[in-house]
Give the backbone structure.
Amino acid sequence: MVSTTDNALELRDVAFVRGGRTLLDEISLTVRRGEHWALIGPNGAGKTTLLNLFGALAFPTRGEVHVLGHRLGRVDLRELRRSIGHVNPRHQIGSNLSVEEVVLTGETGTNEMVPRWEPSPETRERAHLLIKTLGIDADEPHWHTMSQGERGRALIARALMPDPPLLLLDEPSTGLDVAAREQMIHTITDLPDVIPGLTSVTVTHHFEELPASTTHAVLLRAGRIVAAGQVDRTLTTELVTETFDHPIEVGRRRGRWFAMTH
C-alpha cells in the first residue's frame, strides 16, 4: 500500500474508551519513516491499546489515526494490514509447522498453512532469504519442539514476509532465557541494516531489552503520554521516575540501557 507521506504513524488527539473506561486520552504522536521507537510504561498504561491502533487492529473513540499515510476508517483494512508486520511471542500455531511453513504463513496472513495454497518460487525464495538473514537454521525442529528463541526469530521472519514498511514488536523477549534474549536483541538491532527504511515500534517492560538501534521513545502512564521524542532526551531519570511513580535511575552502558532504583 503506497503512500508518499514521510510519516509512518500519526495520531491526532486520540482517545480510546472501552466499557466506560478511558484507556487512552489526548494522544498526539508522529513517527516518521525509518525511525525505531520504544513504547514503555507500567502495566495498565495503555501500551497494548496504542499498539493495536498502530497495527490497524482497533479504531479510536475520538481523534484521528493515520497509518502509513492512510486514515483508519477510510481505508481497506485488509490491504493496509499487509503493510504492517506484527510480532507477538504469544502467537498461536496449532500444527507442528516447519520453520519454512511458519515463515510462509506471513504471506497469507494466517496462523496455519492455507489448504491447497502453493507458494510461488519467488515466495519460497524470499522465505529462505529471511530464514538465512535472521540466522535461523532451516533444519531446526518443527514448531512444537522449537525453543522460545527459535520461535521468536521465526515469528520476526514471518512478520517480514510481505516486505512491510512498518514492524510492530510486542514484548518480543517474553519467555526467553538470557542467551536467547540477547540473540533476539541482536537480531532486532541489526534489522535497520538488513532492511533499510524499515520503521519499527517495540513494546517492552525492561530497559535492558531495548535494541541499540532504538532512535525514539514514548513514555506512557495511565493512558497519557508523559514524554515522547529522541531516545536520549526521553529516557531520562526524571521522566522515567515520573512515568512509573517510583525513583528509577536510567542510564546507558556500552550502548545498552539500564534502569535501577536509587
